[in-house]
Design a protein that fits this description.
With about 350 residues, this protein is mainly α. The chain is built from 11 helices and no strands. It has 2 domains: about 130 residues, no CATH class; about 180 residues, no CATH class. α1 packs antiparallel against α4 and α9 crosses α10. It starts with a helix and ends with a helix.
Length: about 350
């Protein structure tokens, strides 16, 4: 029975990684075509064409990652250089799909011995699929795929297309019907767990979008110019629908931290003064929240306060770090306004 469980999970994890590579290949198409102004070039249907000469690319040259390696980064038809970002997106998506299969945030897709013997699921045997966990897994695949596509589109165009964020909100709310995806909003046993889960997803959407909108409005008043795009608000609403209100606040916090670190580093290194897209760092924060929300929230609100209680002088360290981060953000924002 153990061998069956191990083989089933191993095949599932490898298969998820291969699926991720194929999805990553499609995401490259989305990233390239979706921002195009010409409606004929914006369509996601049809075969891929060489960006240099326009010739149709053969299927064997379009194999994820391997196709680029076999071609040594050059188009077969005209020797145009193919950006290494194409295999990177495919590999990144493959790694994320594998991570979701190997460390599922909402419980194992295959029942192990402990799950199979629980009273609430007596019909499951070790190695059997857990329907609720499988549904949550599929929702997570859609979620991370959207995050990957939106990240690179924002890097290229500083836009977060509604055609991805708005359906993402709807999909997040639908995924919320499966308990555990966005958590539950209360412990009231008189209300079904499905309804409480949907409510948690809806509250996450409202909190994620609402708090970000508030920050955007305040920043616009303070700096007398648009401080954040409205696309970031819709992205955070989508993220909140998937990870719940606690996860959305954690995402926003982590996004600010990642954005400040990367933005200040780029400014120091290259004198970059252009506007830095916020979406990619929100996506990074969302991925961390997806995989480690419970651990991080416990660390921040249980373990860390207890450690501070035992070490009162640690407040000085926190104060210095906070002042340093604030000064770095203000410096970065000032450079961006020049």
């Amino acid at each position: 029975m153990f061998v069956r469980f191990f083989m089933g999970t191993a095949v599932f994890e490898i298969g998820s990684a291969l699926l991720g590579a194929c999805v990553g290949s499609f995401l490259n198409v989305v990233i390239w075509r979706l921002p195009q102004e010409d409606p004929a070039r914006r369509t996601l249907g049809g075969r891929s064409h060489c960006p240099g000469c326009g010739k149709m690319i053969s299927w064997h040259d379009n194999v994820p990652v391997l196709g680029w390696l076999m071609l040594r980064g050059k188009a077969r038809c005209c020797a145009t250089t193919i950006s290494p970002r194409y295999p990177f997106v495919e590999l990144l998506t493959a790694v994320l799909f594998y991570a979701l299969a190997a460390w599922p945030p909402f419980g194992p897709v295959f029942a192990d011995g402990a799950i199979a013997t629980q009273a609430q699921v007596p019909d499951l045997v070790p190695g059997a699929l857990v329907p609720e966990a499988l549904a949550a897994f599929v929702a997570s695949l859609v979620f991370v795929s959207m995050l990957v596509a939106l990240t690179f589109i924002d890097f290229d165009t500083q836009l977060l297309p509604d055609v991805l964020t708005k359906p993402g909100m709807v999909i997040g709310l639908i995924a919320g019907t499966w308990p555990g995806v966005a958590g539950v909003i209360s412990d009231d046993s008189l209300v079904s767990v499905e309804l409480r889960s949907v409510m948690a997803s809806a509250v996450g959407l409202l909190v994620g979008g609402g708090v970000t909108w508030g920050i955007r409005a305040l920043g616009s008043v303070v700096f007398k110019k648009e401080a954040m795009g409205f696309g970031d608000v819709k992205l955070m609403a989508m993220i909140g629908a998937f990870v719940g209100w606690k996860g959305s606040l954690l995402t926003l916090f982590l996004g600010c931290v990642f954005g400040a670190i990367v933005g200040v580093s780029l400014a120091l290194r290259s004198g970059l003064s252009a506007r830095i897209p916020f979406g990619p760092y929100l996506a990074m924060g969302a991925l961390v929240a997806l995989f480690g929300q419970k651990t991080l929230l416990t660390l921040l609100f249980v373990d860390w306060p207890e450690w501070q209680r035992r070490h009162p002088s640690s407040m000085l360290l926190v104060l210095f770090i906070g002042i340093g981060a604030l000064l770095s953000l203000l410096w970065l924002i000032r450079r961006g306004r020049r």
